[in-house]
Design goal:
Layout (H helix, E strand, L loop, with lengths): L5 E3 L11 E7 L7 E3 L1 E9 L1 E6 L2 E6 L2 E5 L5 E5 L9 E8 H7 L6 H10 L11 E4 L4 H15 L4 H8 L1
Parallel strand pairs: 1-3
Antiparallel strand pairs: 2-9, 4-7, 4-9, 5-6, 5-8, 7-10
Helix pairs in contact: 3-4
Length: 165
């Protein structure tokens, strides 16, 4: 049975010259499983629930980090609809065209392969996405800094955000 998938474009979140967008979202039951034309790194900030990746459910909890290349379908679901235990995530969205433009600056072949994988050009069907754990909170702190820099949008925000990426 085919699943109905939504589609999100980088243009819905980022201005024309932006390469990065960071937000914080309280997940709901109504969002469609979706794909997008940007790279997404998702950090579970609080709560528990499920994430469906390519239709397969997996449990998620605070500290889980998911790297979702272009074209990987996914959606989060909180474990309960009650607002007392929300599932909150931080999304780091990276414009794929930007990564393509800077790929030639990457120092070695392995890094270029990793960039291709992030852009959905990987040739390993068994490794469509990746998961890690933020046990020490470093990814959380960096993502909060990135979110704060981008929220200011002062004259230096792109340069500062690039330092973190």
């Amino acid at each position: 049975m085919l699943r109905k998938l939504g589609f999100y474009s980088a243009a819905e979140y980022m201005h024309d010259n932006d390469f990065l967008y960071v937000n914080k979202v309280k997940e709901t039951q109504w969002l469609l499983e979706h794909v997008h034309d940007f790279i997404e790194i998702v950090l579970v900030l609080d709560g528990k629930g499920l994430q469906y990746i390519d239709g397969t459910p997996m449990r998620v909890q605070e500290g889980d980090v998911y790297v979702l290349p272009v074209g990987v379908s996914h959606v989060f679901r909180p474990s309960t609809a009650k607002s007392a235990a929300p599932l909150i995530v931080r999304n780091l969205m990276i414009r794929a065209e930007w990564l393509e433009q800077i790929k030639h600056c990457l120092p070695d072949f392995a890094m270029k392969q990793f960039a291709d994988w992030l852009m959905g050009k990987g040739d390993d069907p068994q490794r469509r996405w990746s998961k890690a754990a933020d046990h020490l909170g470093a990814i959380r702190r960096i993502s909060e800094s990135m979110h704060n820099i981008l929220a200011k949008r002062d004259a230096s925000y792109l340069t500062q955000a690039m330092v973190w990426s």
